[in-house]
Amino acid sequence: MLCMLNRIVLIGRLTKDPELRYTPSGAAVVSFRLAVERNFKNSDGEREADFIDVIAWRQLAENVANYMKKGRMVAVDGRLQTRSYENKEGQKVKVAEVVAENVRFLDRGKEQGDDIHINDSDLPF
């Protein structure tokens, strides 16, 4: 039997603060975008980045919203999901996004002017 696999690991920086919402049933969902630098330079000698949309659900969503801010370097482990919807103009829009199963800090941030030294084992996720 053939086994299928859908696994993505990304390391990048948040392009803005995560946006937390709740579904009508009360489930937390957070969305954020990661800037992931490419491993090679373009013809001008500059590195380009891919901007990848990520979502997380429930407790992980709340933890991401509470602890992660714009500019933070994070690692995301998850799966690729595609979906489609109809926009206000009646056009079908396809979306590809990473559904995070695990998110970790990879740098130290500043909160209220103080350095924070957090190991991922100190966080509730």
TrEMBL record:
Q: Which UniProt keywords apply?
A: DNA-binding
Kindly give the PROSITE patterns that the UniProt entry links to this protein: SSB (PS50935)
Extract the InterPro entries matched here.
NA-bd_OB-fold, Primosome_PriB/ssb, ssDNA-bd
Q: Does the keyword DNA-binding apply?
A: yes
Q: Which Pfam families match?
A: SSB
Please describe the quaternary structure of this protein: Homotetramer.
HAMAP family given for it?
Answer: SSB
Q: What is this protein called?
A: Single-stranded DNA-binding protein
Q: What is the lineage of its organism?
A: Bacteria, Bacillati, Bacillota, Bacilli, Bacillales
